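Data availability (excerpt). The following record was deposited with the supplementary files.
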Amino acid sequence: MEARWQHLLDAGARSDRLRHVEALPARAGERVPWPAWADPDVVAALARSTGGLPWRHQVETAESVWAGRSTVLAAGTASGKSLAFQLPVLTTLRRTAQQAPGGRGATALYLSPTKALAADQEQRLRGLGLGDAPGPVSSTYDGDTPPEVRRWVRQHAALVLTNVDMLHRSVLPGHEHWASFLRRLRYVVVDELHTYRGVFGCHASAVLRRLRRVAARYGADPVFVLASATVSEPATTARRLTGVPVHAVTADTSQRPAVSVALWEPPQRPPAPGEPAGKVPERRTATAESADLLADLVLDGVRTLAFVRSRAGAESVAAGARRRLAEVDEDLPSRVRAYRGGYLPEDRRALEEALRSGRVLGMATTNALELGVDVAGLDAVLVAGWPGTRASFWQQVGRAGRRGEPALGVFVARDDPLDTFLVHHPEALFGAGVEASVLDPDNAYVLAPHLAAAAQELPLTEADLDAFSPAAREVVDLLVARGLLRRRATGWYWTRRERACDLTDLRGAGGSVRIVEAGTGRVLGTVERTSADAQVHRGAVHLHQGRTYLVDELDLEESVAVVHPEPDPGFTTHARSTSDVRVLRVGAQRRYGPLTVCSGVVEVGSRVTGFLRRRTGTGQVLGEEGLDLPLRTLRTRAVWWTLDADAAEAVLGDATRLPGALHAAEHASIGLLPLLATCDRWDLGGLSTPLHPDTGLPTVFVHDAVPGGAGFADRGHERVADWLGATRDAVRACRCSDGCPACVQSPKCGNGNEPLDKAGALAVLELLVGALGAHRDPSTAAASVA
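Predicted structure:
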């Protein structure tokens, strides 16, 4: 029988938007017997949830964990990864509880990247029907847990479901209250391994090293169990995160339905009145296109999730779909809802149940439903705009097809260089594995506060430093020089009265700024302090839950932005800024004829100098206003390339074109780097200049946008030929004449996308790619993008 969504992929009114369809074949799966050592009650409970025997990869993982080896399971979405760790963990907890009547048996930690996922896991555990006696007793422990419940968890729970944030701020600083639990700690489960990347992954790796150190103080050496549907080099990634050798299970032997994955490019919008003749119009937004697709699928009775990049976007897609459905039947709009962060837990659970039961057929969501929250029975998934990495893309598409029937995934491209490249180069998506997780446990900016926190928990020793990182000794010396640590015969000690764990925020950099409504004092939300200057400066337009506000004042000392409602201001605002980059240390340098590629440490100075007001709809500039905001400095890692001046002038024919050509090449290369590194373009920054004081040459910098760096720029340096080759291809393939958001314009440009020279950028990129090809060392050549 033909799938209900098949007509979307057939020739029809919108077939011109369909760029490619990849057919992923069904897989039968391979089942094996349950292990002989498994607890019979646990086997019976898990068999009820699986409907029979386990998959071979589940048993292989469980056997490895049971044998006492730290193990990572890398298998697809909906492949039953939870069972693989539940089987040995629950068996151990029940057996040891039976052996310690009236006492406490073995304990285990389950760590998830989100509170929602931890709550979902606990619900699954309770759904097994094992009861609380003789064990296990499981409980979530997060920021919402009341004090009296926290005391009970510390004293009685065998399986605690929490996150690294709670380890950092509560469990480890107060480890003496957890002595009974830590003394018996047998397992640490780390779910959704691929989310621990970049700076957050660096923080998590330091927290897990602190956990191992404190557990050892109580005589425990836990086995780590890690899982992810989408992670490259799982054993290496897991070892970097945990600091221990990890065995990898990578063969996915679960049953999988056939999936059709479509690459969809929205059409160009009609020219606006007054637009210059010959200008290529911008494309219809991915948000509007996804709203129409969601409505069509709901009309066909297809249970669908639409993943959208922002909370406002999720609300917009749901609202657009409801409007379309209301034109057909006034009862249909109730079948579509939005789901995002910020909802109350009871509302979130109600929405999940409505989707599972079929009362809601279509749901527009942020990545809040990307991870392993149990939403089964989906027929289709829409991905509105590239989610940043192939790992996230396959996590999202993998939510479809969970009933064993053919499923549909549709990637709807935004007007963006990377999105445009992918819909026209399907081999870069389907011919490549997921990106390697970029994680640097030696990041000194991350290490410093965690070494301070570790010293407050237990005095640091020389052996501890070796366990943290080779860079730890240098960082400790710096902390001593600053008076935060004091050296004694038995180790290094924390010197302050305040809590060392408060020195850092695992999820951000520098705290946040509250957005407060004037008159009511209501807190609407927060924005990271590092981006407040550009997003909530005086006069900025701010959107919240579909309502528009204007910012009256930004008080950086009090970390508050005061706003008032402005239903229809008629304009949008765009911050303008200046920046400069100083090279502090060159770590690597390679010469390719007229091209030199470097990586190292830089200091980025930036200041928001003002903002433009643009008329809503047309983008016409209505005016510019200056701002007096402080200079921000960021010490981070960068990749940069320089060109011999005569070579650059030769390909351009006119030296005055160089600023625009380099600027456009910089924007395009930032847009394409996420193809190779596990990052988003918003994780990056850049600078281009026809004459840089530190290099004395035309130079383009691309840098990590976080203190200390996150490894993204270094990945660009490692695979520079693939990176710049893909950038060249994307610019060359774009049909616009002078540059557009799909090739060289950037949504975050501090100079208002001026000057830009698309033709010049293409000429420079051709020169770079040619130089890399002509002078490349075959022994060190990186694999192609595909």
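Summary of structural features: The chain has a mean pLDDT of 87.
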